[in-house]
Prior knowledge:
This protein is α/β, with parallel strands linked by helices. The protein has 3 domains: 3-113, Response regulator (Rossmann fold), CATH 3.40.50.2300; 137-207; 216-366, Histidine kinase-like ATPase, C-terminal domain (Heat Shock Protein 90). The protein is 47% helix and 19% strand. The chain has 10 helices and 12 strands. The chain has helices spanning 19-29, 42-51, 68-77, 97-103, 115-168, 177-207, 220-237, 264-281, 311-314, 334-344; strands at residues 10-15, 34-39, 56-60, 86-90, 107-110, 216-219, 241-245, 259-262, 286-293, 297-304, 348-353, 359-366. The strands form 3 sheets. A 5-stranded parallel sheet has the order 2-1-3-4-5, sandwiched between helices. A 5-stranded mixed sheet has the order 7-9-10-12-11.
Amino acid sequence: MSLNNSVKQDRILVVDDVYDNLILLETVLQEDNYEIILAQDSKSALAIVEQSPPDIVLLDIMMPELDGYEFTRRIRQNQNLPYIPILLITAHIYSSVVEGLDAGADDFIRKPFDPDELNARVRSLLRLKHTIDERDHMASLREDFVSRFTHDLRTPLAAANRVLKLMREGMFCSVTPEFAQIINTMIGSNQDLLEMVNTLLEVYRHEAGSKHLKFFPFDIRELVREVTQELKPLAEEKNLDLKVELGEKLDLEPESANMVMGDRIELRRVLTNIIGNAIKFTATGYIDVSLSLDANNVLIKIQDTGPGISQQDQAFLFERFRPGKHTGSGSGLGLYLSRCIIESHQGAINVESEPGHGSTFTISLPK
């Protein structure tokens, strides 16, 4: 079997309400090896696009029912369709290039056109289509690889921790205090690696656009209280004072007071990460978590008495794979993921810090 037989033909949908124009375009395009689909009715053409997306659409602007501009807008508004280049064709000198491009078209050509120019524009748009398809395919492969890779890592890590915990409890042999400490260290290291693997998977889901947030109203005060209570033992182990100021309840109707529209699980992940980091990197002093909100906005501040962060490091703190310079800094993905989650909620996260004077992370969210 020859390699040429396995090469996919590019499918071109040509839409024009004048039959003679369709035949002319078909004749011009037949110079290359394309599969050409002709449609004289714009509504039936739109159905073709939705059922079996072509690789490119050549579209007359002036058509009854759906003109070229509206046809283009409907394609671009359909989130279920892949990227399809659209070349608008018109015989009217007053047709608006601006309106066509704003509607989502990729190129524009006027009749009478030069056949060589038309073919060149089609080839150019098909190259763009192939490049974008290849990029999307690689992104899909990357996400699939990361998903499989992280799953394959999580399973043995979780199993190893179960065995280690049984060992610590003396299920297999007697355990001395020194041996128990070694086991605890191993469990902690496994847990850190497991969290890193989970964070890596979440980062790639966000970057690939496959992370779907679930927005529901929830009590933000209750979430902050829940996270700080869960992390309080970690602060107490280091003799740190974890302070929580939830502010006054708003004088609003009961169903709207202190409620935020968002993905509670993902915002919980952010708070756990930021407050956990504050505890991790603070040797002495306190961590102060404060919540303030009004009718439209939520402001959460996490202040610590840790070593602080230089202005140079602050500039890259929320970038991917940019770990801090503190001892024990992780992969640099936690803060990047937190930024992705907050920005997905149309909010913002930033830091104010000075070396030797602690740090204050501020999370702002719309209600």
